[in-house]
Give the backbone structure.
Amino acid sequence: MKLRIRRLVCVLFALGGVIVWLVINPASYETVVTKAEDDGLEYAAEAVTVADPNVPLAVDILEKLEVKGRAPKTGYSRDEFYSSWPTVDGCNLRQRILKREFGYSAVLDGCNVVAGEYDDPYTGEHKKFDKREEISKGIQIDHVVALSDAWQKGAQYMDTKVRYDIATDPLNLLAVDAAANGKKSDGDAATWLPPNKKFRCQYVARQVSVKFKYGLWVTEAEKDVINSVLANCPNEPSVGVEGSR
């Protein structure tokens, strides 16, 4: 009985201390609430792999994709997809993707991310930025399924609205190291994979998910490489694809 009373007294004392601290430092409570706010964009790079029976496996989604050769690149232009980043809820989409990836570390000046840090998915390096200029030079927003690749694998036959969605869907967008993205260029999985081997499963799973979502196809060589990657992580889930296994 005495032990229970002692525990109760300790709990009440600790709770009282927290309340007093919040009263004395109201700004600290506001900071916690602000950092906990959700930016509203799904499909962050560091998605946790969970064995959810309602999420199809990437390897199963891959089998549903049509396998064909590349169509000609004739007529391709980024303007066939979009001309600039759209505004989402009052803020530029590029800045929203940066905020999504930087998470709680993002320092904002209005809509603009001016500082922050994150683990770059393509290189695996932890990157920290103190100025907006550093972010502009060091980070690019990559289309996981490159727009040129999408064009040659079905998008050129789709209407403007679908192509716009491919280019601006957060599922197809990642904030990544500029140099690594430059090496990727418009390659598919058969020609380029992230140097960060720990991210390759998530990377190809996201490519498969984007192509499935928008009805794009894969080449035989591309499928072979993706299968080879997923062989090391057979339980890797798809991203943003609904339906049970």
Observations:
- The chain is about 40% helix and 10% strand.
- Residues 1-37 form one domain.
